[in-house]
Amino acid sequence: MRPYLSTRTSVVTSSQVRTLALTAALAVSASLLLVTGALAALPDGRGYELVSPVQKNGVAPYAAVPSSTGGAVDFQARGAFAGATWGSLNLYQATRTAGGWQTVPLTPTPTIPLGSLEEQAPVWFSSDLSKTIFTTPQSYVPGDQDGGALSLYEQTPGDGLTWVSLGSQGGSEPNSATFDSATADGDHVVFSTGASLLPAAAGLSTEAAPEAEFLYERDVSGGQTNLLSLDASDQPAGYVATTLPEGYTPGFCCLSVANVEGFFPGQFITIGAGPSAEVTQIGKVLILEGVPFLEVENGSGLSSAFPPDTSVTHLAEGAILGDGGHLASGLPPAGEFLPANAGSGSTTNAISNDGSKAFFEAPNPAAGEPVGLYMRQDNSTTVKIAGAAPYGTTLSGAFVEETPVFGSARYQGAATNGSLVFFTSEEGLAGATPGRELYEFNTTSHAIGGAAPLSVNPVSTGLGGDQAPVTTLAAPGKGEAITVVSTAGFHAGEEILFAPFKLTRGRVNSNELATIASVDSATELTLTQSLTGVGPGIAAGIALHGVHPASLTAVSNDGSRVYFVSDGVLASNTNAQSATATPLQPNLYMFDTATGETAFIATLAKSDVSLEGSPTGLVGQPDISRPAVPTPDGGALVFASAANLTGQNPWQEFTEIYRYTVAGNSLTCLSCTAPGVKPKGNATFGETAGGTYDPPGLSSPMSDDGGRVFFQTPDSLVPEDTNGGAPTSPKFGTATSTDVYEWEAEEVSLISGGTSSVPAVLQGTTPSGDDVLFTTDAQLVPGQSDGGYENVFDARVGGGFPEAAKAAPSCVGASCRAAFGVAPVFAPPASTTPQGAGNLSPVITPKLTCRKGLVKKRVKGKIVCAKKRAKKARHGAGKTRREATRNKFNQ
After folding, report:
1. What are phi and psi of 73, to 5 degrees?
2. C-alpha dihedral sign at 487, 490, 495, 499
3. pLDDT of 363-380, one tens digit each?
4. What pTM does this model have?
5. Helix locations, 798-865, DSSP H
C-alpha cells in the first residue's frame, strides 16, 4: 500500500487557496482562456490540462494516480505508445513541464516476449511516484532463475530494477511471490510465497488449502530478507506438537494426547515419523472426563499401533499480512490484484511506516480454521494479540464431554506508526460479551487513552460497557417460550447467545444462538426455534445476552478516531438531524481512542452494510474499494450511503455522498439532487475509493483538510451539466454517463465537461485538492485531435497551457510508437480507427505454453498458467461412519 503522506509544513485555508488561485488565473493571458475552454466555469480558478499524449496508438488510458505535489501522474493502458516495447498492459508516467505534459513508459522492457496472458503489473507506487514495484514473470538479474514464476522488482530512477522477492537461499523454485505491502519510502516490502528463501522457512503443510505460504519482509536498502510469519518460539506460526501419553490401538476413533492447545478441527496431523507415520485430519477436539482427545475425521481411527510418547504434529498452514494483504492471484489482469479475503477486512497499515511492526494472521482465514492475529516487531519478537483460542465449551453426550469453542481474530487496521492495531473477534475479550466486537490493541509501552500497554481494549461496547442486554434464565430453557429474570432491553428479531457455554446433542448446535420472535411480557420471551438442550433443557441461572456484531468502516491514519457499524445502541447523543441510534439497525459510530467516547453519526441502510450484493459495502468490502474515507486525523469522514440521512433522499434507491465532521457534529449530503428530483444512479468516489491510506493506484477523493470533496454522479447538479439525456443501461435502467464534481463550502461545482455521453471517471487527487484527475472522451483542450478516445485530464488550480508554449511533444520515445508486441485486445479494426489516433501495432498472439511446475487452468473465463494445488480432504468426508463410531464410543 501507499500510506497517505502529507508533507506540507504550513496550513492554508480553503478560502485562501481559492483567492490565490483566482488571482493567478486572472494573471494568465487571454490566450489561455481560449486553450482551456471551460476554464471560466471551473471552481478555484482551475484549468484543464491534457495529461495523456494525443498519439496513443488507438488505446485509452485509465487508473491514473498523481504524485503528492501533482507534478507527475502515473496511468496504465492496455496497449503501447510513447516508446513502450510491449503491446499489452503498460504503466506510463507523465511529467508536467512549462510546455505541457510529457509521457514515458515505466514498465520494464521484457527480455523475451511475454506469453499471451502474461503481464508486468505495477502493485505499488511511492507518494512522489519516483519508485514503483512490479510483479513480473521476467528475470532481470542472473540469480532470478525461478522458471518464469512471478517475482517482484522495485524500479528507482538511476538505480534501475532491484530484485525484491529473494532470500539467502532458493530462487530456483517455481513459486510465485505476491506483493502484500510496503512502507511509504519503499525500503521495506512485505511479500508472500511458498518458497523457502531462508533457513528458518520450514515446516509448511503440503495439505493446506489454500496453499500455505511464508510471509517475508525485504529490507531493500539493507539488502536483507526476514521471515515474519513466526510465533513467539520462532516456529512457523501455526506449527504445533504434542505426544501420545498412552499406546494407541488401531481402529480407535480418538487419540489421547498430552494436550490439545493449538489443535483445531480440520487440521491435518502427522502421527509418528519416518515410513510408519500416518497423516489424518482432526474431526473434533474434545476432553472426556478431563482427558484431552483428538477425534479422527474419518471416524475409523488409524491403521497402525503407536507406542507412548509418539509425536503428533501439525505443520503450519501459512500466514497472510493483515486481513487480506495476501493477493488473491498472481495472474493478470492488474484488476485482479485484490486482497484474498475481500469480504472481511482491511490491509491498512499492516506494516508500520518505519517497518518495525508487521501484523499478520495465521493460518490464512480462507482455510476455514480459527485465525490468530500476531505482531512481529523489529524482526526479533512476536506477540500473539488474540484469536485461535477457546472461549467457551460445549457439553453433550451420555457423560460429560467438553468441546472447546474456538475464536478467531481478524485484522482491521492500524495507525501508521503501528501504535494501535484494530481487530474484530467473537471471543469476548477484556470484559466484553461473546459476539463479534471491535477491539484495539496498544502495541506500545505506555498507555494510549483507555488502552494500557500491550493490552486489548473493547471499542464497540459503548460507554459504560457492552450495551447488549443481559439477563439470566429464571427457569430451565426448553421449547420456544422461555422465562427470564427481565426482558428489559431485548427486542423482537434480536439474536441471543447462551453463555458461557453452549449445550449440544451430537453435532447439532441447537442452543448456542437463538432469535427472539416476540417479547411477551416483562419476563417472557418467545423464540423462533425450539430449545432442546440435554435432559430438562438449559439450566436456570444460565446467562443469555443480545448479540450486536460490530464491523469496522474506517480508521484515521494516526489511529485517533475509529468509525464502525453496530446494531446496538452504544451512544445516547443526537446527531445533526436530531436522530438517535436505532436498536437492531446498522448504526454508524465514531470512537475517540484518546477519550474512549463513542458518538452516534447516523443509522445506515441495510444495503450499505450487507456483505453480499451491497452497492456500497461500508463494512463488507476491503479498504481499496470501501466507500468511506477519513481525513488523516479522522476529523471528517466522507461516505456513500443509500439511506435518507438528511431528508434529501426519500427514494433510498441509489447511494449519495455524505460528509460528517466531528467539529460541530455536522452531517451533509454532497451529491443529493434538488427537492423532488429523483436520482438516476449511484453517486460514487470513482476510482479513488480507499481512503487516505492510498493503496496502490488509488488516492483520496478529498483534500487532506477535508475542505474539498470530489465525487462522480449521473445526476445533473448544476445547469452546466447538460448530458442528463444520455442513454440508460438496458440491463439496470440507470444512467450510463457520469460527471465529476467538487464540493467546497456548501457548494457543488462541475469538474468534468458535462456534455459527453460516455462516463467521466474520477481517477485521483492530490492532498491539497489542487489537482483532480479524471478520464473522459470529451474534447476539453484545443489540439486534442485523438479521434475521440478517452484521455486523462487534470483540472488544476491555476492550470492550463498557453498555445504559444506548447512546443514540447506530449510523449517521449522513438516516434511515440510501440516497438513490438500485442495490440489491445479490443482495439477497433484499422478501417474504423479515427484519424489522429496513431497506427495500430501488428497483432501478435503467442501460443500459451506453461513453464515447468505450472499447469493450464481456467480463471475468470481465461486459460492461464497456474501452480497445481494439492488436493485437500473435505472436512465432512466420512461423516456418517464417524458419527456411528462416535455414538458407539459414548455408549
Report:
1. -140, 130
2. negative
3. 988 788 899 999 999 999
4. 0.84
5. none
